[in-house]
Write a structure and sequence with these properties.
By secondary structure, this protein is mostly helical. The chain has helices at residues 2-22, 26-90. Helix 1 (2-22) packs antiparallel against helix 2 (26-90).
Amino acid sequence: MNKTVLKVSALVLFLGLAGGCATTGGGDAMATANQASATAEAARAAADRAAQAAADAQSTADQALSAATEAQACCEANRETMERMFRKVSSK
């Protein structure tokens, strides 16, 4: 995603500069290019924050899976113990 944002910002910057060369009002083109660059930087920062949030969510999901796996193992161990106790009582 970062590469896409950088490509888009480079394209916008190039088009802004190329458009500025084709017009006589160079100040407007430079302002547009600067604004496009700032927008691209803001988009990159937002993408970085989203990537970090996704990594945090994945970490939380991994912890939840680990806890669920441990709980399942405990449940199965308890079931086996109860079955052994039931068989022992039933055999008397």
